[in-house]
Amino acid sequence: MDKDPVEPARPALRAKAMLRYDKVRQRFILLLPEKAVLLNESGAEILQLCDGTRTTVALIDTLEQRYPGADLGPDVIEFLRAAVQRGWVEWILPP
Predict the structure, then answer these.
(1) What CATH number should be reported for the domain holding residue 42?
(2) Residue 84 CB neighbour total at 10 angstroms
């Protein structure tokens, strides 16, 4: 499912995507078939929470608890939409 439901969908890394920490670069890398994406800190933090168990709102709440006073919602939603378009993340709808 590649549409953009945002809520109540739960973002999850695609089955062929793997998030790995590169000790040499001291950064997370998203590994995809025939591709590797070097992530910045905020992108890696968002993707670590894309496990299919949290709704987008719950994911944003988790990040905003880590960074009190920050309004992260619009940026997280924009990142997730881009990640879906790039094939990194998919939306999982509840049963």
Answers:
(1) 1.10.10.1150
(2) 21
Per-residue buried b or exposed e for 45-76, using 16+ beta carbons within 10 Å of the residue's own CB? bbbebbeeebbbeebbeebeeeeeeeebeeeb
- For residue 4, tell me if it sits in a domain: no
- What domain range is 80 assigned to? 10-92
Structurally, the chain folds into a number of domains equal to 1
Q: Could you report the per-residue pLDDT of 5-55, keeping only the tens digit for each?
A: 566 789 999 999 999 999 999 999 999 999 999 999 999 999 999 999 999
Q: How far apart are CA 60 and CA 46, in angstroms?
A: 9
Residue 54 three-state SS: coil
Whole-prediction pTM: 0.88
- Is residue 30 in some structural domain? yes
**Amino acid 5: pLDDT:** 54
